Amino acid sequence: MPKKVYTGKVISDKMSKTIVVAVTRITQHPVYKKTIKKITKFKAHDAEDACKTGDHVSIIESRPLSKDKRWKVHEIVRRGNQ
Q1: Measuring CA to CA, which residue among 37, 74, 71 is closest to residue 56?
Q2: Model confidence band, residue 52 (pLDDT cutoffs 50, 70, 90)
Q3: How many CA atoms lie less than 13 Å away from 17 in the CB half-sphere?
Q4: 19 pLDDT exceeds 80?
Q5: Which residues does residue 38 pair with via DSSP β-bridges, in sequence order?
Q6: 1, exposed or middle or buried, with CB in 10 Å at 0-12, 13-18, 19+?
Q7: Which of 23, 26, 33, 53 sits at a 20 to 30 Å CA gap from 7?
Q8: What is the CATH number of the domain that holds 39?
Q9: pLDDT at residue 46 in the model
Q10: How many domains does the chain have?
Q11: Structural domain of 47
């Protein structure tokens, strides 16, 4: 089974070795067919503390690392403008 990979924006890096990534996906309403933007927040493990707020990163699913962390940083896609 391949692991899930999502791409999103880092919205918080205030925790030690943990970042919060907001993943945006666009879906269609089942009845009214309007396009809806849904944002899901994931906590991801960042072992080197390399990611900063505003970066775009790719995260991959992993085993449970803590109560909320089930994702690891796969790669930094694009740095934020800081």
Answers
A1: 74
A2: very high
A3: 7
A4: yes
A5: 25
A6: exposed
A7: 33
A8: 2.40.50.140
A9: 96
A10: 1
A11: 5-78
- What span, in angstroms and rounded, lies between the C-alpha atoms of 3 and 38? 22
List CB contacts of 42: < 8 A, sequence separation 6 or more: 6, 8, 20, 21, 23, 59, 70, 71
Task: Show the DSSP H helices in 1-82 as ranges.
Answer: none
How many CB atoms within 10 Å of residue 10?
Answer: 22
Task: Look up the pTM and report it.
Answer: 0.89
Q: How many CB atoms lie within 10 A of CB 29?
A: 9
Cα dihedral across residues 73, 80, 6, 76: positive or negative: negative
In 3D space, the residue among 1, 3, 13, 6 whose CA is nearest the CA of residue 75 turns out to be 6
Q: pLDDT tens digit string along 56-80? A: 999 999 999 999 999 999 999 999 8
CA distance 22 to 67: 18
